[in-house]
């Protein structure tokens, strides 16, 4: 269970609604059609997630004989339909098959499990060995990937704007990290708490990619979703933690709206109060802290962020200042008055977020 008494009824997608809204207005039906169908499907899944929360979902436990500290992965194939989970096509320990999408999903689940266990001694996303399930080939030309509170779901993309959503490993990690937040701080999915929720997923999604590639903070690209955009799109990724607002600038998609500092904080009623937009601010703070410290970002900067997320003091309605203050406290508690504390203070100061 969460530390805050139950699950927040959250349906989390990696592609934000404002991007799909823009695509849905395109004159080319090859672009508008898949975007509109994706928005309709997302609306359905969002409602289903809310009802599941109200009614109560069955608990998911590891199967008999499952070892603690070992992943238990299952990948399903929806066969371009929407019934979940679909046909079981790969289970834990089985050999790779011919479907590259299935193999990437399986590997991404494992990479996420490995980062949380190796870096933070967390056994799966709930800390108790939760099985990791994923469904691929969801719907026709579905332009998204999501965590529905129980499992991962991946679309194949439309091939025009988005490619297969299993290609970027940080997209897989991003969505599974929503599960970690669900089982810990349970951040409300609206406004600044929602932006923090999204930022935590970007942070750990990026760390999962860096951990898999063995990269230092200086070597990482700090992009979320690199490799997801089709060749016709003018852009490199969905978001940039290094330089929020620069991930894409495209005739169809428009320009990346993320701010890097509080000076450009976006006030909007769309996208649950801008959760995918204003997450650029805490994202950039983490980038500054991690690159200031150097080395592997999951070791010190990541540890501080993980301590705050799982420490029990982060309230579900936390604002940026609340989170920032807790990172300062966590840096002091774990590293005293060393360079870690100074890096955290510098990061929040540079993005314009006060710490108490």
Query: Helix/strand-derived class?
Result: alpha+beta
Oligomer: single chain
Instruction: Provide the succession of SSEs.
Output: EHHEEHEEEHHEEEEHHHHH
Instruction: Tell me the strand order in the biggest sheet.
Output: 1-5-6-4-2-3
Alpha carbon gap, first and last residue:
30 Å
**Main β sheet profile:** 6 strands, mixed
Tally of helical segments: 10
Percentage of β-strand residues: 5-15%
Radius of gyration: 19 Å
Estimate the global geometry from the Cα principal axes.
Answer: globular
Mean pLDDT: 92
Annotation, overall tally of beta strands: 10
| Helix fraction by DSSP (H/I, runs of at least 4) | 40-55%
Weakly predicted, low-confidence segments = 1-9, 52-58
Structure report:
With 356 residues, this protein is an alpha+beta fold. 42% of the residues lie in helices and 10% in strands. The chain has 10 helices and 10 strands. It has helices spanning 17-24, 29-55, 100-120, 169-183, 191-213, 271-274, 280-293, 301-310, 320-335, 339-351, and strands at residues 12-13, 73-77, 87-91, 132-138, 145-147, 152-155, 223-224, 239-240, 249-250, 254-255. The strands form 3 sheets. The chain has a 6-stranded mixed beta sheet with strand order 1-5-6-4-2-3, covered by helices on one side. Strands 7-8 form a two-stranded antiparallel ribbon. A two-stranded antiparallel sheet has the order 9-10. Helix 3 (100-120) crosses helix 4. The protein starts with 11 loop residues before the first strand and ends in a 5-residue tail after the last helix. Mean pLDDT is 92; it is low at 1-9 and 52-58.
